[in-house]
Design goal:
By secondary structure, the protein is mainly alpha-helical. Helices cover 46% and strands 7% of the residues.
Length: 89
């Protein structure tokens, strides 16, 4: 967690960013939120988080995108692999 925090703030400093937004599933972690907020206060960098209800991973989004294809009979064979650039439609 410390490494993520320090790399994030170093990158913000390098590009001259005055704010940081932490999102995704990691943003639900209370210790991470505290660490980022503490570091933000000491460096003068505003740090924002979405509410915890919106701090989730994208599994539900992937399932929602896949369900209509599944219902329509579009099934992948075993050669399908995880690829970040696969289209959702």
């Amino acid at each position: 967690m410390r490494d993520l925090r320090e790399r994030t703030f170093a990158a913000a400093e390098q590009i001259g960013a005055s704010t940081i937004l932490v999102s995704g599933g990691v943003a639900a972690n209370a210790q991470l939120r505290d660490a980022f907020e503490e570091r933000g206060k000491s460096s003068g960098t505003r740090t924002y988080f979405p509410c915890r209800a919106l701090s989730t991973d994208n599994a539900a989004m992937i399932a929602a995108a896949a369900y209509p294809r599944f219902r329509a009979g579009f099934l992948a064979d075993t050669s399908l692999n995880a690829t970040a650039s696969l289209p959702l439609s």
